[in-house]
Amino acid sequence: MEFVEELRWRGMLQDIMPGTEEQLNKGVTAGYIGFDPTGDSLHVGHLTQIMTLIHFQRAGHKPVALVGGATGMIGDPSFKSAERNLLDEETLRYNVSCLEGQLRKFLNFEEGSSVRNGAVMVNNYDWFKDFKFLDFIRDVGKLITVNYMMAKDSVKKRIEGENGLSFTEFSYQLIQGYDFYYLWKHKGCMVQMGGSDQWGNIVTGAEFIRRQDGGAAYGLTTQLIKKTDGTKFGKTESGAVWLDAKKTSPYKYYQFWLNASDEDAKNWIKIFTLKTKEEIDQIIEEHDATPHLRIVQKALAQDITIRTHSEEAYQTAIKTSDFLFGGGSLDFLVDLSDAEVLDVFDGVPQFVIKKGDLHSGINILDLLAVHSGVFNSKGEARKMIQGGGVAINKQKVNNIDQQFTGTDLINGKYLIAQKGKKNYFLIIAQ
Question: 141 with 268, same domain?
């Protein structure tokens, strides 16, 4: 399927310049998307652009991923209410290296005679680091008028807003425009792509190419992804959902997609997976027949978790979900590091006890009501144990005289207390 048509049926396409489809139909075309390294990880908000590059490459074209070491120093003002904090060069270099590693997980960067469309990674700091300010404003600034730049909606909103717009951010449009020109001239990039908020910058770049060299360049944008309930896509109560497993664990990442509403999941499975239209139609049909099984959400979560992390990470996420919300075993915890165990129980009440106290054994009532705060009193603990509502390490406690020692610790460190069916508590022996 042709690239633009692929974006259309998936509900991704927003704007497209005249002539773009004709250019792509001529043969292998290089096109780029920029990612500013404002942090050391991409998040799910970047996935739309990553998927755009993946579809671009799968359609036979050559994707260029630009990591903006230079533009990251400025900050894109597009539809933002305030100026970003400017990062130092050392932080930006570190962020760039992290983003490059993440992008390589999604795109094929192989080069050679048999691979005509291997992805390319570039950093605009490479061509800006020696660009003198006077040369820039003379050679680049003269080509685009202030009137042209101020006509962009993203700029007008900032100028009319409370915080205004600094010259630093105002210059971003010229810098990104020069990026397009540089890649057009030196890498043969005919197309720039991005989110809908980048339309003004993309048009400026194409205009720069026309005015500077009389050349033709093209562009398209993808739709802004929204949630049907009006909340921002990619945000949770705890913040952004990151692609870095250290920032957002594979389990939480999996849960983010699994918890999508039916309507969101039906839209997102088109955007964030590589499944065909026929496969997606079948999944949605099966889902609608048995919506309580959440078939669309599970298919979406499985696909994107494996591609972002790994099959192993997906399996751990499944086992974690089964453990916390079903009758799953806790055996999988043995293979996890301390950090991963703590992540599984993030948000679960945690108590620390002295490992030495376990040498001679701790009575269950003391464990739950004295050494920890699972229960407010021994009486409360006794009553619930006698009612069959207490388990330690998934084993129901029936005897109020039961003792626990160091041999009961998972990974030599943890006891998992359960009060009722879904109330978990992590007891950490130190």
Answer: no
Active site residue 46: yes
Catalytic residue among 15, 43, 93, 303: 43
For residue range 82-129, list pLDDT tens digits in order.
444 567 778 888 988 899 899 999 999 887 656 789 999 999 989 998
The total domain count for the chain is: 3
- Residue 230 falls inside a structural domain: no
Catalytic: 236? yes
Q: Are residues 408 and 280 in the same domain?
A: no
- Can 43 be counted among the known catalytic residues? yes
pTM (predicted TM-score) = 0.85
pLDDT digits (tens, 9 = 90+) for 132-141: 989 988 888 8
Q: How far apart are CA 270 and CA 52, in angstroms?
A: 12
Q: Mark whether 204 is an active-site residue.
A: no
Q: Which domain holds residue 193?
A: 3-222
The CATH number covering residue 182 comes to 3.40.50.620
Q: Report residue 355 as tokens.
A: 């490992």
Both 323 and 392 in one domain: the answer is no
- The residue among 417, 418, 415 whose CA lies nearest residue 428 is 415
For the stretch 28-71, pLDDT in tens is 999 999 998 888 999 999 999 999 999 999 999 999 999 988 87
Angle at 307 between CA 302 and CA 308, to 5 degrees: 100
